[in-house]
Amino acid sequence: MLHSSTRALLTIALAALSFVAPLTLTVPAHADPHDECTVNGVAPDPSATALSGGPGDDVIVCSGELEFPISGGDGNDTITIQGNAVRDGISGGPGDDTITVTGDVGGPGQAGGIAGNAGNDTITTGNVESDNIKGGQGNDHITTGDVTNIDYSRQSRVLGGEGDDTITTGDVNGTLVSLSRKVLAAVAGEEGNDIIHTGAIRQGRVAGNKGADVIEAGALSEGNIYGGPGNDRISGAGNTVLSVGRSSVVDGGDGTDTCNAQATAGGQILNCP
Description:
11-stranded parallel β-sheet; 12-stranded mixed β-sheet; disordered N terminus; mainly beta; single chain
């Protein structure tokens, strides 16, 4: 049994503990995004409002969410964003550029876009969310996740540009604003003999446009596929039969086209035997 004086001291000590000021941890604010980038292995000036590699073959690496514009400039540049690309754009500049974004492109209230510009560019990203990717002039390879409109005002687009392009995406998802209005997400080769592979198309548009194009897609629902001028081949993945669902159209356009497709539930197949 504790002596009365010992009990009194213990009571005082416990009471004192209840008045000890809480421990306060100060967490530093997110580092300035410039501190998370290097240009040819060198950190840029923290006061800079944009990054540019300039003439020559540059290597630009950034981590975190990109919040300022980046340009590779002239030359065969390698630009890697280890995170999401939001707010401002990425431009490869003239040359054969490699642009990689490990996260997504765009997002709510964000629209910066990626442009390969002139040259044979390789662009690889995660999902494209109400933003734009364009290869530009040259034979480009573009690979993305899903291409999705996440708000009513901005359309998601993945475009090859001029040249023989290869485009591979996940699903292409537009936005149904009302029964009479849709905002279609779009994937297009534009000019050249393009190869386009997509997942399912829901309220989206996929187009080869000018050239002899190959388009392979998942099921088509409330969207359309357009071959354009040229001898095009349109089918499901791996040249299987493409299901053309309700309110959907497959149009081969001008030229001698081949469509391995079957219309169901009100879908249409035009200009394509």
